[in-house]
């Protein structure tokens, strides 16, 4: 199928010229993040991820409300943590956003701990499952009579949801509990950068898991990208990006995330250990970004032709959506659009799966 090509909104204080060296002009703020999103919209990207953090950056839902009326064509992928807001009000909030952006809302479901509490993985994913089920029902305009471990609720949907349809739910996670939730309730499973072979394996696994529940599931790849006119220029840009990185600073950045000990983060660390002396674990897949970032910790690095070929390889492996980012985000957003995006057939995933 035709892939979705999305960019990253960097609401979570994750924008640098030199990785690990804060720049006040690139710090998460309304003007800066607005400019990233409007740039992606003007260049023809299909969607933009608005990440969610507590201690870092600005709020994704509030930001989405401000930016939605300014967009001309792009979807919004708004990250929300399950359990952080009472689910009937969350449904009302998201339905309002969907109206504001003309039905182009997509939702990134986050199952991380809520700030100030810690739950074991099993109960946390059970709460996420219940929130997803009830949220979808409300946004489909259905009345809810639900008795779960975390939710006991009998309620009609708010007026703004009646007659509506839930936007696609994007969801990622690599533990057994996370994969089961994704297979049961997600529309798009998000995976992190890995070898083409490993990404293909997770695509097949997740599609088989979903089929076991009588469902279909698309797979998206969340990765960074560094593209230049030539491979050597791209590799030099990668070296420059980490040229001022202090190892202790990188470690602190990795550990400040709420999901810093997750299965997915551990796999990103393993990739760095498997990489060669320059940080490449396979051609055009560079793990150096993970030295100062929790979560997606690798980048596609190469010439325009190499990046297109790499994207095609992931597509053949089963990937239907790509959520890309680069440093600084506006610069790389423009560069990728100029060198690659125009030669890729791409389109938003079906608004309602």
Structure explained in plain terms:
The protein has one domain (4-226, 301-343): TIM Barrel (Alpha-Beta Barrel), CATH 3.20.20. The radius of gyration is 19 Å and the shape is globular. 39% of the residues lie in helices and 18% in strands. By secondary structure, it is of the alpha/beta class. It has helices at 30-43, 60-67, 87-100, 121-139, 176-185, 196-212, 231-241, 247-255, 263-274, 304-317, 329-339, and strands at residues 4-8, 47-50, 75-81, 105-110, 144-147, 152-155, 169-172, 188-191, 218-228, 280-282, 285-286, 299-303, 321-325. Helix 6 links the parallel strand 8 (188-191) and strand 9 (218-228). The mean pLDDT is 92.
Which regions contain 5 or more consecutive residues with pLDDT less than 50? none
Q: Main β-sheet: number of strands, strand sense, barrel status?
A: 8 strands, parallel, barrel
> What amount of the residues lies in strands?
15-25%
Mean pLDDT: 92
Q: Please count the helical segments.
A: 11
The CATH superfamily bears the name Luciferase-like domain
* CA-atom Rg in angstroms: 19 Å
Distance between the termini: 14 Å
Share of residues in helices: 25-40%
Number of domains: 1
Second CATH tier, the architecture: Alpha-Beta Barrel
- What is the tally of beta strands? 13
Structural class: alpha/beta
State the assembly state of the protein chains. single chain
Q: Which term fits the overall shape?
A: globular
CATH top-level class: Alpha Beta
């Amino acid at each position: 199928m035709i892939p979705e090509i999305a960019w990253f909104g960097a609401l979570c204080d994750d924008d640098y010229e030199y990785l690990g060296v804060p720049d006040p002009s690139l710090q998460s703020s309304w003007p800066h993040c607005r400019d990233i999103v409007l740039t992606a919209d003007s260049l023809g990207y299909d969607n933009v991820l608005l990440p969610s953090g507590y201690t870092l950056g600005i709020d994704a839902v509030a930001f989405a409300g401000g930016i939605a009326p300014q967009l001309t064509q792009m979807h919004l992928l708004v990250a929300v943590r399950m359990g952080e807001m009472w689910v009937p009000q969350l449904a009302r909030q998201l339905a309002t956003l969907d109206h504001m952006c003309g039905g182009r809302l997509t939702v990134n479901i986050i199952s991380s701990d809520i700030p100030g509490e810690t739950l074991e993985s099993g109960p946390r994913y059970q709460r996420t499952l219940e929130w997803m089920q009830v949220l979808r029902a409300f946004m489909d305009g259905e009345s809810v009579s639900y008795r779960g471990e975390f939710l006991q609720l009998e309620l009609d949907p708010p007026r703004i949801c009646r007659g509506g349809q839930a936007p696609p739910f994007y969801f990622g996670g690599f533990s057994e509990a996370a994969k089961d939730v994704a297979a049961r309730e997600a529309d798009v499973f998000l995976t992190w950068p890995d070898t083409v072979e490993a990404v293909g394996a997770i695509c097949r696994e997740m599609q088989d898991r979903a089929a076991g529940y009588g469902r279909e599931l698309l797979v998206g790849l969340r990765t960074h990208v560094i593209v230049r006119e030539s491979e050597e220029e791209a590799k030099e840009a990668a070296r420059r990006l980490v040229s001022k990185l202090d190892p202790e600073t990188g470690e602190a950045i990795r550990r400040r995330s709420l999901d810093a000990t997750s299965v997915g983060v551990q796999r990103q660390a393993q990739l760095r250990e498997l990489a060669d002396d320059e940080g490449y674990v396979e051609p055009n897949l560079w793990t150096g970004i993970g030295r100062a970032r929790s979560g997606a910790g690798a980048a596609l690095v190469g010439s325009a032709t190499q990046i297109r070929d790499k994207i095609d390889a992931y597509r053949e492996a089963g990937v239907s959506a790509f959520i890309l980012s680069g440093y600084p985000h506006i610069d790389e957003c423009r560069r990728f659009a100029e060198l690659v995006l125009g030669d890729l057939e791409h389109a938003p995933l079906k608004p309602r799966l």
